[in-house]
Amino acid sequence: MPASQLLGNDTNDDCSGTLLKFDNVSKIFPNGFKAVDNLNLEVKRGETLVLLGTSGSGKTTTMKMVNRLIEPTSGKIYLNNEDISICDPIELRRKIGYAIQHIGLFPHMTIAENIAVVPKLLKWSKRQISDRVDELLDLVNLPPKEYRNRYPSQLSGGQKQRVGVIRALATDPSVILMDEPFGALDPITREQLQNEFLELESEIKKTILFVTHDIYEAVKMGDRIVLLDEGKIQQLATPQKLVENPASEFVEQFLGRHRFQLSLYTKKLKHLNIELQDGTPPEKKSDNHLTMRSSLIETMDAFKVNKRKELPVYSSKKILGFLKRSILLDTITEVLHTV
Amino acid sequence: MNQIKDFYNNLGSEILRLSIQHLELTLIAMVIAILIAVPLGIIIAKTKTRIIQSATLSSISMVQTIPSLALIAFVMIIFKAAGLHTIGFFPGITALVVYALLPIVRNTYTGISQVEPSTIEVAKSMGMTKTQILFRVELPLSIPVIMAGIKISTTWTIGLATLVSLIGAGGLGDLIFSGIRNVRESYIIAGAVPAAVMALIAEWLLGKIELSLTPDGIQDEALHSNKKPRFLTPQRKLVLVGIGFAVLVAFLTFRMLPSSHKKGIVPGFEAEFIARPDGLPGLYKKYNFKFNKKPKHLDTGLMYKACETGSIDVIDGFSTDGRIPAFGLVALKDDKKFFPPYYATPLVRENTLKKFPELRSVIASLAGKISETDMQKMNYSVSREKDPIDPKQAAKRFLIEKGLISVDSEPGDGSAGIVAVGCKDYTEQSIIGQMLSILIEYNTDLKVDRKLNLGGTMICFNALTNGDLDLYVDYTGTVLMSILKKPPVSSPEKAFNISHSNLKEKYRILMTEPLGFNNTYTLTVRKGFSKKYNVKTISDLVKLVQKKKN
Asked: How many CB atoms lie within 10 A of CB B351?
């Protein structure tokens, strides 16, 4: 497969260079299992790169090599153009945020102490730590007064996971590694946290390496997706490209029957030739208003919630025009035929 | 009588002193055990080699399977091989420490290895060093389990500390053993109750310490009571507790050191001798002196060895004891005639004599037959290190020599009934017990049930009064003072007569004619010691003690 096709060319505009680079990286475990096979990958500054694959595909191994929980058998990994194998692993890890499925909050520490672990290791001042803890708790809508002195066992699963995520953000690290961070949650809480995180992420603009086996989560969270199998990259593309132009039979099989549903997530209004009409604006801009960046599924959702025959499409505060429900349904039918 | 009263008056302060000593033993042993066991537990939890883990754990478990008394003996052997004092504080502490290790090591190992691997991975990935992971994550999370181990081993140690009294380490065991050997139930209670109370208090106190060291986050109670975080965080408390223990150990060690290094004459006596009015208290009065050092409490079996090796200078010995010549010791002359007579005399239940009248003449045939030299020789033949013979052989040989049984005679058929013969648990008693048994077996058709090596006067005499024994041999002095609680009497005839009539009236027990030898107390020293300081009599020793004091 030619490299150009593999890498995809539709990249995010605000990516101003490579932050993390895998250079011919392989990992063979002592038992002979080849988890990662000659991987070449560049993670751009500010993007969320999803490592997607089934178990055993090498996605977690790839991620754990970044903070040297696992050492590669061959090849080099560069963070900010520095070869990480030369760095002190302890210092390296303190610069990298880490959130995992099991959350791994320390049960004997309060929420505040849990968040403060790395700042403390970096010897921040007390004042600095306390301010940062409050700021982070506010960020995920856990009122600091109420939550900072609680213990993990007094929190719900979703609250714990929020703490797990903000703990990874505590020192404002340049890279955050997330290993199925929402994997252990129930579907409703998971979706809620995904949405919260997307919002959070749009504010903080972090470089995130996100591991998941859930294609919907990958499509939802990722700026780009790397589909891995047997330690090799099967396709590296934006969610839309991955869904619409599978690079190989394997990718097609991996997407399987989900392709139509997935394309409802990846197709946005701006990608489709949709006619907008004139109409009368509602008195109030609704919460889930449409923009040209809204996906088909979000658009359908908006119609379901608002129960109107037409809805305004905004560009920031300006109304571009009105989308008729019948036109939306026609468009969806077209999509159904193309995939 | 006054002497007995004195001792009872002293008992209160004695219980307190021994309780404090007991506490010191336990505390020092526990601190040392914790200092060894917790790091050891951490190391084996951290090592990836499974063989090292299981080898360490099973070898520590193996120590636990050694009976505690045997362990104490084992520690003595090792101390002797290392050229150290085999009795006293240090071997005692060593035995306690070795015994206390297992629960702490095992629980530390369990505690550390049960911490969730994902928690450790997160700690690692956050950039904690191995030490930080240990102290900030693994240890705080293991505290409840480790403390449970410490609790178990503390209560064990409090119990075991009563046994190290046998090698002169002191503690409440002194009272308990003194009570057992000395027919004084009150002493046993005075020793056992404080030890039990101590164990309960320790359990309660350690529970409190555990609760305050356990992080709130893993404590149900604290979680439900939405407490504010405390100023004394578990880490700070751990440091405080650590400092507290260190200060305590330093203090106690300083207290111990001067006494164990002070020059002077070191006395070591049996519990019975220390307590009896005709033993040490009476000796002090009669000769008007006191040893500079508190006499170490020693088990009879260890006393001679300790004197031979030089860890003890003066012991109480018995005039007929074969170990006096055998261990190169010499008995000091009782120049003020303090020690009362102790003529060996069979005690027989009157009911038994009624049932088996033939016994009377058999027992009487031994009267006056055994001289002190005879007894010393027999004792020596049994206790000497080079080819000793067993007490039965010694007894039989003597009976043949004296013509009391003939070489080619056969024992009776045992059809006439069963007689239970007892004796206490030392060489001379075993020989005499065997001698009476053989004599009965060869001269009657009675079968002898040998209940030999019973633990002391109280056990033998109680067994005799309630019919578990039919006869055993005791000494006039012991009967008079330990059993009948009468004041000492220096005339042998008078002692016999008082004992005889009292036993007959009160207990329906017949005291038959004495066997011949007088096994009284003597103060015994090494031959070398006697020569070096020219000490031949007790008065000589008193002078030497007073000279050393100044």
From this structure: 12
